[in-house]
Prior knowledge:
Elements: E1 8-11, H1 14-25, E2 30-32, E3 39-43, H2 47-57, E4 66-68, H3 72-78, H4 86-92, E5 97-102, E6 118-122, H5 127-136, E7 140-144, E8 168-171, E9 187-190, E10 196-201, H6 206-215, E11 219-221
Helix pairs in contact: 1-5
Amino acid sequence: MKVDKMAEVFKCEDKAYAAAARFLAGGHVIAVPTDTIYGLACSANCPQAIKKLYAIKGRDSAKPVAICVTYIEDVRKWGKAEHLSDELLYSLLPGPVTVVLEKSRYLDNPYLNPKTTKIGIRIPRCLFMNKVTKIFDKPVALTSANFSNEPSTLSVKEFEHLYSHLGAVFDGGVLSEGLEQNRTGSTVIDLSNSGTYKVIRKGVSFEKIVATLESHGLSSILYD
């Protein structure tokens, strides 16, 4: 993989939102804060950007990445969510949860999760990411800011070894109070089948998310 110059580090202040959107529009992979851990982000429907994201991660393309969007309406555009009520979706999002759905026809990048018909969708409870996705106005592919099989990261110092491969780094400080147990990232729930849920990853908000799902009448199938 070609090594570029070291990425510039931006503080997550007002001018940084538009800068991040410009990097995404230019096909770059950038590092961003979320409501759980730091992520690597790029334009989800840009084939070259997705290939670059996988190369940086050293990740097998069989392992899926999620997308980050702004609104519940976006969840319905990029994923098939006709069987889910607005009440349920608004009770889950924004927050530290990834909702897995079947991809819609609009998510047509052949390099994005080529081994599955599904997509994980996030709306983080994170002002920076919410403003960036609103300005960019397209789905943003998102995965953890680390090499595959490394621990996830709670500060930008923890992934300095990736800087030379990134377009930019956006520093939101220490995330999740710096607590080790919060490195597990978002809770990942498959809601692709009507009336049921499957826990793919417990993550930081497992008990709360499961309680919410069951209060809306969904029943569990075995989780991994």
